[in-house]
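FW: tagging you since you asked about this chain on Friday. Here's the raw sequence from the shared folder, copied in full. Didn't touch anything.
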Amino acid sequence: MEVESALERFHSLKLADIMPRFETMPVVTADSDILSVLKILRTRHHVWVVESRENMKLVGVIRYIDVIDVLLPPEAHRFKLGMTSKTMKSMLGGATRAEDVAERHVLTVEEDATVLDALTKMRKYRIQVLAVVKDGRLVGEVSLRILIDELLRLLRVGGAQWKA
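HL: got it, structure written out here
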C-alpha cells in the first residue's frame, strides 16, 4: 500500500478499533495509596485515576513527571506569596491517595473519534497520550506509540500485520 493512501486510511480509523485491551491499561481507583501508584509508574509513563472500578468515572491522571511533586517536601513548593496547590501533592504535605496527587484536567477524546481527531488534539496540547471516554467513563487510551504501531501495521512494515 502506498504511503498516501495508507495515511488516508489511517487518519479515518476509529479509536475504538485500535485501542489496546482495557486490562493492559494502568488504572487505579481514587482511594488507592500513593505507593501503589509509584509501583506502577516504575514501568509506565502515566496512571489513570477513576472513581471506582464499577463506574470507571475518570477523576484524573498521574504522569511519571508528577512524581517529582509527590517526592519533594512541601516547602519546595512555596512561593513568596504563600503555598501552592502542589504543596498538597507532596507526600510530606499530606497526600496519601491517588486522588490527592492526580491532575484533574485530563485531556480526553470520545471513543468514536478518529485517529486524525486524536492527532490534532495531541498536537494542539503538546501531549502524547489521551484518555478515551464514553459518557465520562474511561474506556481506553490512545498514545502516540499506539498510533505509530498502527501505522506501521497498516504499512506492513517489519512484518507487522494489520488487524483489519
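FW: The longest helix spans residues 115-125.
HL: agreed, and The chain is about 30% helix and 20% strand.
FW: great, closing this out.
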